[in-house]
Amino acid sequence: MSLLEFTNVSFNNREEDILKGISVSINSGDFMSIMGPSGSGKSTFLRLCCHLISPTDGTLLFHGQPIDNFEPTDLRKKIAYCFQTPYLFGDRVRDNIEFPYIIRNLPVDDARVKALFSSFQMTTDYLEKEIKNLSGGEKQRIALIRSLLFTPEILLLDEVTSALDVANTAIVEHVVTSLHNEGTTILWITHNPEQGKRHANKVLTIKNGEIQALETIL
Amino acid sequence: MNGSTTIHVTSLMIASSLVFVTLFFSYWQKLKLEKETIISVVRAVIQLVAVGYVLNFVFGYKNPAFTTLLLLFMTFNASYNAAKRGKAIKRGLLISFLSIAVGTLVTLFILILTGIIKYEPNQMIPIGGMIISNSMVALGLCYKQMTADFKNKRDEIETKLALGADILLSSKKIIRDAIKTGMLPTIDSAKTLGIVSLPGMMTGLILAGIPPIEAIKYQIMVTFMLLSTTAISSFISCYLAYHEFFNSRKQLVDRSEN
């Protein structure tokens, strides 16, 4: 059974077709790179996966069940979505790190927080830093830590390294591949073909809202 | 005034010469406001004469059911106007009606219970009017702020939703900001009472010959009741209205995709 199954999925907004007749299966443990020109519908594809929007046509199954059958907040806790431009709320980094625990009514797991900061080559000294003083790369890494505090079943990455330098990109890639090796399914939008194929076992190319190619890498 | 509580019509006629001052300035400075000034003055006189006769009739008709009906009519009108400020809020009229009605009911109940006012039309209608109109303004501000925030802060809300937060937790900051926006004018006006201006009710009482020390007691009551109603109405309306920005699948509605 596929983890996520798109069958003839379309999405339109204000009478504009953003995605048209998308049919694709994503299996547990897949590392899928999603490529295509800007405005082709890649982000919409990811937004459908974590139920921030719903298909206007077609069916989308998660674990073989229509995605609408799941309680949205429970579903989104299993499917983490990292935006291209990360949004950090509150005044300090701590506000963002505590948020996933507040949602779940759980105390902050300091050991987990420390380990994640360390994997992104940061220290927990960052917790007290003000958001306004962080660089773009730091913001993106904090946003990723925030999404990974509770290991997701699926990790959706929307061009998360597009604004990062080589060193930061390598750090993020390392964490993502480690996570994939531990069993998390990865869907990663990238504009870099070399990056797209480096770790992926599937490459999905979307153009004008339609699947142009689905390549399996052996 | 000589402590008199009545104004003769002839005195009013003479006072109307003050309108000519406005007309003179408009004509002299070529403001082209003469026509509008005359229309506004005529309208004000007609409306006030009409309302005077209506209130005269209403105050004489001491039926609690009739008073309640009038208060409900005022609440409906205020709700209708407040809802126009939040067109994105689908059930704006119902939410406004509920919020204003509850705010008004609680405040009036406390005022009646403490014996400050009685459930009589000559007290309920003017006091109710003050409360209801203040709530209407507060709700209009709440809706405007809320609609703008849900439009401008979509990234923040969707980030929280994507992390698995419920719609209430994702909207809490927006709700709080909207309630604040609704309440601030009443709080600010309370802060400056007596320093910047003598409020309408107090001025009216003093003009009617009530000693200032007595008049301030009424004004203090009005300040308390306006603060309470604004808080209750803003709170209820914002906590009911935020739902309208989400669909049943806890998704933000009306987002243009790319």
UniProtKB/TrEMBL annotation, chain A:
Keywords, ordered alphabetically: ATP-binding, Nucleotide-binding, Transport
Subcellular localization(s) per the UniProt record: Cell membrane
SUPFAM superfamilies (UniProt xref): P-loop containing nucleoside triphosphate hydrolases
Occurrences of domain ABC transporter (ranges): 4-217
InterPro entries: AAA+_ATPase, ABC_transporter-like_ATP-bd, ABC_transporter-like_CS, ABC_transpr_CbiO/EcfA_su, P-loop_NTPase
Keyword Nucleotidyltransferase: no
Top-level taxon: Bacteria
Membrane topology, record value: Peripheral membrane protein
Protein name, as recorded: ATP-binding cassette domain-containing protein
GO molecular function: ATP binding
Automatic annotation (TrEMBL), chain B:
Thylakoid keyword on record: no
Localization per Swiss-Prot or TrEMBL: Membrane
Transmembrane segments: 6-28, 40-59, 65-83, 95-117, 123-143, 193-213, 219-242
Keyword vocabulary terms for this entry: Membrane, Transmembrane, Transmembrane helix
Highest taxon listed in the record's lineage: Bacteria
Major localization class: membrane
InterPro entries, A to Z: UPF0014_fam (IPR005226)
Membrane topology recorded in Swiss-Prot or TrEMBL: Multi-pass membrane protein
Family per record: Belongs to the UPF0014 family.
Protein name per UniProt: ABC transporter permease
Species whose genome carries this gene: Sporolactobacillus shoreicorticis
